[in-house]
Amino acid sequence: MYDADFVQVLQASIAPCVMISGVGLLLLSFSNRLSRPLDRVRQLKKEYEKASDPQKAVLFEQIEIFYRRCKILRNAVGALTVSLFFISLVILVLFVSLTVQTYFFRPLMRASFVLSILAMIIGVVFFFWDVLVTLKSIRLEIRQLR
Description:
mainly alpha; 3 helices
């Protein structure tokens, strides 16, 4: 492979690499967000064991909401991980196809890119769903103040 061809391969790989950085930052953010409800479930479990019967019902409802959030965020993290997989596959296929100078892998590359974008969108939708569930949890805590 000539130096000019290698430079072309590197240039073509820049956009997917930038996408990896963006999805990686989203993944970091979602992972950090996941740790909050996990810690809160552990704390509420300790409170539940010491609570009276009327308090237990409210605490159990809160635990269920936080557990639901954990599952939603798990799905968001999973979708972003799938997105990272497909964008990495794009880079690999791009490198191989430009190195070998063949167009045979173009459909795989295009499909991988589209799947990566779809997985990222799904992750963001799960993130928004988590925000909605969080508001439900806050509403429950406000209801307790009455």
